[in-house]
Amino acid sequence: MSESKIELYRKLISAHPTIELKGKTTPYTSVNGHMFSFLSKEGDMGLRLSQTDRDAFIKEFNSKLMEQHGRIMKEYVEVPEGLIQNTEQLSKLLQNSFDYVSSLKPKPTKKKK
Question: How much is the pTM?
Answer without folding.
Answer: 0.91
